[in-house]
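Sequence in, structure out.
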Amino acid sequence: MNPAKLLALLLLCLALPLNTQAANPSYVPAMDYLRLSPDVQLTPEQALSSAQWQVLSEETPNFGYIRDHIWLRFPVHNPELITLLEISYPQLDYIDFYLIQDGNIIRHVSTGDQKPFLERPVKHPHFLFPFQLQPDQNYQILLRIETEGAMQVPLKLWNSRSYFEKASTESQLHAGYYGILITVICFNLFVFLALRERVYLLYVLSTFGYLILVGSLNGITYQLLWPDLPAIQNRAMLLTVPFAMVFTLLFSRSFLRLDRSSPILNRLILLTIAANLLVAAVTFVVDYSTGSRLTVALAIPSCLLLTVVGPLQWARGNPQAVYYTLAWGALTLGSAITGANKYGLIPNHFITAYGMQIGSALEAILLSLALAVRIYRERQDKVLAREAELRALEARRAAELRLMDLALHNPLTGLPNRSSYEMRLSELIQASEQERYGIAVIHLNNLNSVTKTLGHRNTDRILELASKHFNAVIRDVPGAIAIEQSDVRNFYLANLDPQTFAFLVDAREAEAAHRAVLRSIEEVRYPMDFLGMQVPLSPQLGVAFYPEHGADGSTLIRRAMIAEGSKRARERGIAYYKPAKDSYSAERLTLVSELRHAIDNNGLALYLQPKMSLKSGNIEGFEALIRWPERKPPVRADELIALAEQSGLIKPLTRWVLQEALNMRSRLLELGFETGIAVNISPNNLREPDFAVFVQRLMQSYHHHTGAISFEVTETSMMQDPLNSLKALNSLKATGIPLSIDDFGSGYSSLSYIKQLPASEIKIDRSLITELSGREEDRVIVRTTIEMCHSLGYTVVAEGVEDEITLKLLEEMGCDLIQGYILTRPLPFKEIVDWLSDQPSRSRISAS
């Protein structure tokens, strides 16, 4: 039912007794009263004969909280109709009823709130005294009343039938009232159990407190709960008021959220709660009258505080305060009226008697509406919050997808990036480990030049065009595998970095259609058409295969890039990974670290191999050869030099060799051996801008070795950078360093260029000397070379001489010096000194 209709029906029911009272044969008699102190005790006869009787000016006796006892007397009119006396205030401790006929007491009934309920003449919450009167007789009723509570005696004479008809109506009214409160309690209890929000439990306890309070005031609790225990009834009367106040204050504090909205009011309510709890405790040690006064006295300001809190919060914009103000205003007004009635400040009538019931009914309905609105608002807030959360989640999801897309794609070209490429490759490997895949990279070697020429913006545009072109070309490559495929876009190409692309192919399909693959590669190598220009990007391709060249994406990509950077890729545009030519392996990195440590800690050694003059048989000098004796397994000298050149260690290595060669010659001089030492120089040293300056300063420190330390440079290495090499060699010549051209005849050097070199010695490569005795063509070449070099003024050294026949041939051809195992293998310093000491016994070589 609609709460407003329910409230109107309740008010209508409350008004029924007032509207029908005039038709009922009942009335409130005119009374006299006698007020006596507690220490004065009179018999009924003495009371009737007392001269202190006074006329009661009010319709209803209401003396407030007094300790005196009261005698009341009044005549009974219409004895044929009047058969019942009702006292409608159930909290009177002791009542003595005397029915007097012609001055004689014909009936006496003793009852009260301090006596068991079952001893009452009529089992009713109110005090009812039935009687039968004779017509034409004079009857008078005498009442003696004593109580520790409020001394108010709302009485009325009734016809029994009329009264019980009226009582039935009131019972229905009270049943409706209690039903409202019980419904509110159950409803909010269920809400609390469902939502687990403290405010609903507090409201349940608050409403339950008012239910017990009103039931106690009306005597219902005494009749239904503890009819044989009057002491409990009195204790309940004292405790229900603070109980209801405490939970009402707690509910208000929670409902209005005062701990956040108003700290001052919050502290004031907590203080009032403490005061009510204190009063509840005090009622156990004081008498009923004092306790009753204290509870009622504190209830009035408590209710006023609750009334004030609502408007204050309303004024501050608290939306819950609107319903709260109306609800607690009604309850406070009703409670205040009832409290004032108890003190005797206002007369006793229907509104004052039922003020609390009316107020609490209004409060229950309005606060139920408020809590219903609260539930609705909270639900709406939760729905809105959930919708906002879903929108936020959707936005976050979209942002995450966008971030994921950015994390997996190149922002410029939109192609999948390295991470996408590696994930796709890993998926393929895991899905079918038996398949063979080609991992190909495309590096744009000319992109930096294009950027310097056209600028970054144009380069970005060219990259976008190139990526689309490459993707379209790779899509048609036999065996091409999509890196990313969807309804919107298909990518067969990935962007590893701004200058490098990559794609995947099924190796078997690609190998089966080799010509088609080569055609596609040629299309990739075409210049890009941009703004009417043909822009060459010079792409180079490197290819590695799974599983031959690696078992994971990172390794395969790395090895494909090694292939792309190889000399073959520069010459032919494409190269396949060759493990034997991989100078970037993990073993190599370890070796580089060990080599650096060896250079820094003298872990290397110089071995010397002698050069002997064929004319004199004397040792004319030595070639210093690098060795790494501590390294196990050993590293060949040519591998060590290549490793130093690739890793950038050639600079400190060459400086160490020069220093060590100078130290060795100093020790040879101390031993009486005046021979020179030749040191091999890398072409990388010739490209160092400070190399000539370093050598000049070093030779100044060892000026007595000037001319005795010579440099050997291979003809092939000088051809890598002829101009700079020639410039560096001329600077070294000016420093006083003799120059020897090593491995002559092994390369493709220009004779005209060699003629320009400041060299004084030519060393014929061992490849021409090794088979000199067995190959006529080699003998022709060597003889011609010796004659040519002599005509140009060079001293000629033959490397790799290992037998007597070769030595004889070279001697006949006029070769100046020989070097090789026929003399000795390269030896460390101590052994070469021992070998030199035995040299006189070896003179047979030159003598023969």
